[in-house]
């Protein structure tokens, strides 16, 4: 009952979160050699994954990863941020041209822009090795890595690219039709690519038919139609095992008023009767997505879902004057005030979405990259007023910044899978 009440109070925001891309999907594959003199764009031949196992009941308070078992060598998501004023961040700098202008907090003169990288994530019971770009290029020679998702995935993708670009030689930039961008590091025949897709389900406005129907008989006059099982128009050459969603991002929570403009779920062209609430619809969308990906991608693919990247609006939501003016990481007490499910925290939707994600991934062959909890502390690491928006940007992250730590975690996890396989 408590969860139902929270979902009800969160309805406008949760409705939005349900259908923006909450994941970063990364695919690791081996490919044929590419000549540096005459590069060809790669085909994906993907390496073998391992099955996700373990207790699926997540901690409702912290939203922690339920896939981390006692037999695991390390829970990298459990730790704290340590300040090191003497640290030198030389992975890349603000001159990297792929950094989106609004995220370049050093060039935009954010007051703590240079201090953000002086905080190091320290897992409680083990060591998280820093990313070594040159070693990565050698280790993953003849490999393709694809990022699929929204602008937060691009945040992480750019961090990885800038680090590799600094130590690599010739780089070929290419842009398949309809995709966003890709880079091939020619000397190593390593390709990383970003494919932008914002939504997990196709939806649009719905109005009652004058001839009547099942929804009309129940008194519905208008709303938003959500189709389970997204259709896709084209699978691009670089992403032979990926998909393109025919959807658009709606950044307007008020459009999903449960009375005036409800979400109405359809399957195989027919409305689900009786209509289902948003949380049940979200679970169905996730299940359809996971089944589709597992059916579409080659069986040997390594697939990782990132958990939800947290927002840090305080004093109101993004369109209500909310801001993120902190200059240092938050304390554990402050984190709970912002994100606690039991206390109905201002930014609790990240943990709420993760609960649905963990449940939906049960029994799948996805791996989870848990970036939520470590990121909850970093209210100081957003562009805030320097992001070039009319409101504070408390969603994206400064570069250099916390997504560099996400890549530390990603590479460490990838290395462990490589050894295991």
TrEMBL record:
Keyword Transmembrane: yes
Highest taxon, organism lineage: Eukaryota
Single GO term (MF): O-acetyltransferase activity
Residue ranges occupied by any Trichome birefringence-like N-terminal domain in the UniProt entry: 73-127
Alphabetically ordered keywords of this record: Membrane, Signal, Signal-anchor, Transmembrane, Transmembrane helix
Cell compartment(s), UniProt: Membrane
Gene Ontology CC annotation, any one: Golgi apparatus
Membrane topology: Single-pass membrane protein
Protein name, per record: Uncharacterized protein
Organism: Gossypium raimondii (Peruvian cotton)
Record lineage: Eukaryota, Viridiplantae, Streptophyta, Embryophyta, Tracheophyta
